[in-house]
Each structure stands twice: as C-alpha cells, then as structure tokens.
Amino acid sequence: MATRRQPLNLRGLMPGLFAATLLCAVALAAFLALWFSAPGAGWQSVFSDSYLWHVVRFSFWQASLSALISVGPAIFLARALYRRRFPGRTLLLRLCAMTLILPVLVAVFGILSVYGRQGWLASLFNALGWQWEFSPYGLQGILLAHVFFNMPMATRLLLQALENIPGEQRQIAAQLGMRGYAFFRLVEWPWLRRHIPAVAALIFMLCFASFATVLSLGGGPKATTIELAIYQALSFDYDPARAAMLALIQMLCCLGLVLLSQRLSKAVAIGVSHVRGWRDPDDRLHSRLSDGLLIGAALLLLLPAAAGGHRRRDQP
Questions:
Q1: What is the DSSP letter of 8?
Q2: What is the mean pLDDT of the chain?
Q3: Residue 64 — pLDDT band, cuts 50, 70, 90?
C-alpha cells in the first residue's frame, strides 16, 4: 500500500477530459441555440406560469415515488435472492437485466395486456365474478411502468452489495445468534446504505427525464413531466423560451441530485474474504416461505415483458 500521495498522471487523464469537455460543449451549444432562438422571451413571464410549476411539481412527485417504490422492495428481494439457490436463479437475474434494454413501447403494450381493462388480470377477475377497477393510465400507470423498468435493476445492484459482505462477518453473526432484524441492522444494512443513495438517485433521474412512458400512459395534462412539456412546447406551441427554461430546470435538478448522491455515498473498501458463498445452516421455514413469496412476486412483475413479446409476435 502506498504511504504517500502519488502525483496524478495528467497525460492519462487527457482522453477522458477531452471527451467530457466535448459532451458538455455539445449540450451547452444546443441549450444556447434554443435559448437565443426565442427573441424577447422574459424570465418573469416564464416563472409566473402556473402550469410550468405544476409540471415541475409533478415531475418531482412521480420520480420520488418511483424511486421509493423501486428501491424499497428491491432491498428485500435482493436479500431473498442472496439467501436462496434454486433452478433458474441465473435466468431470473438475466431477465432483471433485460428490462434495461427492452423497448419502452413493447413494455407499455405488455403492461396494457396484463393490467388494462381488457388485459389478463381483468379477464381473470371477470371469470371470478369480480370487477377490475385498476386503470393503467395516469400517475398509477406511470409508477407501474417505472417500477417494472427500475426495480429489477435496483435488485441487481443491491444484490452485488450483499455479495460483497465478507463471509466471516456472516459466520460471526450466526455464532452470536443474530437473526432477523438484528442481523439486517448490524450486518447487511451498513453495506446496503452505502449503495442505496446512488441507486435511488439513478432511478430518480431516469424517471425524472422519462418521456415515452409518460407520453403513452400519462393520461392528460395533469400527468405531464418536464421532458414531455419540452416536447409540447417545441412541437405544438413553438415556445422556445418555455422549452429552454424547462431544460435548464431539468439539468440543474439532475446535477444537484448527482452531487448530493455522491456526497451521501461513501466508497466501500472491499476486503479479502476467505469464506465465499457461506450460508446460514440454521435456515428456518418461515424465512424460506417469505423468500419464496418475494421471488414469486418478482416473477409476476416480469409478466409485462412476456405479454409485450407475445403481442408483438402475434401482430402481422
């Protein structure tokens, strides 16, 4: 280990600095071109627009709810996947990664095929004599789509955090009789809390800048994000001043969130573990049942992907 500070190799940093500068210059040039193409646009008139602030509030609200609903269950699902080894586990983890590359419209068609008024669940409820009241449009539809895309990603990232816990810590906790909440609080939570701010910030930014999902499932002016408002300002109203202001607000919000998440997240020093893949021999029945229910619920969450692929294959 080095005992003194090492000088930075500026020559090795030049390619990265050049690429970062180029990306910033392109983004800044696009923003300035949009701003200066709106002659006579005043900041005061834009700031006094009540609809603009409604869009900003809704964007924050739906992104915050999406991050909370995605990360919260992902903590328990990651713990269940770490504790259990079953046939198809590797395939399930690969399916979790598939939601990142699945086209948005295919996923939207799948969500409508499962949760829509003519979907699978509605048909099941009708067969049982019940009425299906859920509508996949509006805020609830946006949250459902965002959870479908982001909860599997959060699960994989938090599962990696659990796999980094040295096996010796788990062995000592088992010898001391730690179970349940005490084990989670003293052993697993210190590792998870270092990753949760970064994961939540990433999901927040993805949902904050969501476009195709909100355009398909938004359901009207009450459910509009900043990204969709920029599209409306340029395509329908041709108001470059409003579009530039919304773009500036979006960039500042995302930049502030990135800086905050980096400040809250601390680097994890991964030590050398001589015990790998250790499992607690005192595995209780209720723990296995609860983990099985969580994993089964995760499989149900991936149904829209199968429904979207089936619907796309049936189309001519």
A1: P
A2: 80
A3: very high
Residue for token pair 């099985």: 292
Backbone φ and ψ for 53, nearest 5 degrees, come out as -70, -30
At 291, list the tokens.
Answer: 């983990």
Give the residue among 199, 129, 131 at the shortest CA–CA distance from 159: 199
107 token code pair = 């996923």
d(CA 43, CA 255): 21
* Count of Cβ atoms closer than 10 Å to residue 169 Cβ: 18
Q: How many CA atoms lie within 13 A of 117 on its CB side?
A: 3
Using pLDDT thresholds of 50, 70 and 90, give the confidence band for residue 38: low
pTM above 0.70, yes or no: yes
Report the distance separating Cα 315 and Cα 280, nearest Å. Answer: 49
pLDDT (mean) for 99-105? 82
Backbone angles phi, psi at 240, to 5 degrees: -60, -30
Ordered DSSP codes for 218-240: --STTS--HHHHHHHHHHTS--H
Q: Which two tokens stand for residue 241?
A: 């001043």
Tokens 């509006």, located at residue: 138
Q: What are the helix and strand counts (H, E) for the chain?
A: 15, 0
Sign of torsion, CA 153 156 159 164? negative
Distance CA 202, CA 161 (A): 16
For residue 274, pLDDT over 60 is answered with no
228-249 pLDDT per residue, tens: 888 888 888 777 777 877 888 8
Tokens for 212, please give them.
Answer: 């195709």
What tokens appear for 117 in the block? Answer: 């008024």
User: Going by CATH, does the domain composed of 54-266+282-307 fall within 1.10.3720.10?
Assistant: yes
pLDDT of residue 8: 59
* CA pair distance 146, 62, nearest whole angstrom: 9
